[in-house]
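[step 3/7] fold_predict: job queued, chain A
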Amino acid sequence: MWGALAVGAVSSIALGALLGLLWERLAPRVALVVAGDGKPYPEGYQPEEFMSDDGIAAILCVLGGLLIGACVALIARRMSSPDQAMRWSAIVVVPLGALGTAALWFVGTHLGSFDLNEVVLASDVGDAVTAPLRLRMPGVLVLWPAASALVVFFVAVGDWLADRSRRRQWERGSLTSAG
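[step 4/7] structure written:
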C-alpha cells in the first residue's frame, strides 16, 4: 500500500514536471514595450498573451488530473475491493493532484523566468522585451486535483450503477425462479 502511494507521488511529480516543461515551451510570451517612464507595458495594451499563458497551464492541469485520476482508480481496483478502492482513490487523488500541479508550476515558472528589471534597465525607450512566464490566475492550480477527483467520482458512480443493475437482475431472476 505505502509502496503504491510512493510510486503514485513520484509519478505525479514526474508528470507535473514534464507538463511544466511543456507549458514553458507552448506558452506565448507577452510582448512588452519599454515606455518613457522606464517601465514595461503590454504592447498595444491588449494583454491576450497573459490569458494564453494561464489557459495553456489550465489545459495541461486538466489533462494531468484526468490521467492521474484514471491511473489511481485502475490501480486501486486491482489492489482491493471496489468499495475500498474508490474510498482510497478519493482520498489519494487530491494530494497527488497537489503534488503534480506544484511540480508543473515550479518547473514551468523556473524554466521561463528571468530578471525582467535587468532586461528593462538594459533596454531603450520603445524597445520590445518579453515578459517571463508567470501564472497570473492561481485558481488554475486547483484544476488538476479537481479533474482527478471528478474521474474517481465518475468511476464510483459507474460502479454503483453497475452494481445496482446486477442486484436488480439477480432479484428478478430469483423472483421468477421462486414463482
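[step 5/7] annotate
Residues 37 and 125 are 8 Å apart (CA to CA).
The first strand starts at residue 31 and ends at 34.
exit 0
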